[in-house]
Protein: Pirin
Amino acid sequence: MPAVTVSDITVLPRVHQPDPAVAKERSVRSVTSAPSGYEGEGFPVRRAFAGVDLRDLDPFIHMDQMGEVEYAPGEPKGTPWHPHRGFETVTYMLDGIMEHQDSQGGGGVISNGDTQWMTAGSGLLHIETPPEHLVLSGGLFHGIQLWVNLPKAQKWAAPRYQDIRGGDSALLSTADGGALIRVIAGSVDGHDGPGSTHTPITLVHATVSPGAEMVLPWQPDYNALVYVLAGQGTVGADHRPIRKGQLALFGPGDTIRTAAALSQSQAEPNLDVLILGGRPIREPVAMAGPFVMNTRAEVIQAFEDFQAGKLGTIPAVHGLGTDLHESN
Structure:
């Protein structure tokens, strides 16, 4: 799991250890296991938020752990062209390469530790695929896709695309150097990540060494979730066990505690977690397929707009002599 790493963690800024006499530690409300499924053209995913009430996830809607899978030559898969409206998609690549293109001209290539942040807003079409050379060669594919809701006032914002390089993330360590903390968006202990968000959130990928513990200050008005990408350990002051593919939901408070088990597998030598939280929007959510709106009527309108071509058209493919357009 390369993502972004450093040769000497001791040179990084260190997160201040919260004073337990002042800061209230968040308790663990639940630990759930992500079921497996398939997405797009058939790539395997874990449904990270399955079984968790949408009100507890707010402002998040959906999250898939994509892979981890080692493709043989010819096997890598992506998604076909499809529409979105009313939210933001965040794709974070841990291993492998993904190409993005959308009908607004946004797009790019992301690999180990990079993030593509797409604000669908009023609506667009997009596609995510492995590059041709990776399809031919095969290889490891592992990433996360997160859906972040937009408040009603911003669901009609103009689409936007952000290409966030892994090296731009704010890199921090715990006081004892036992954990590497990558701040992708939001802020941890005054250190800001590069992601620009419509909805106030914090998104962190942390690697915790065997036997080490990480206590992070967390904004009190945000919810708090920890998803295990690899390894095993515990969460909360009561050291509740957690392992790969499980999600911990925390209650209110000022800090989040995560610890790595002393014994880890050879294949996954550290505890890797995705830590996320945001300020709840607390608005009605109506969603179907690729649309996340406030009312059922708005979702129906989104489908009608898509079918009428109002969410954009698939860009021309050069060299074919004709444009490709959506079939619906």
Remarks:
- Residues 317-328 have pLDDT under 50 and may be disordered.
- The two ends are 39 Å apart (CA to CA).
- The longest strand covers residues 60-71.
- The CA atoms of residues 121 and 157 lie 5 Å apart.
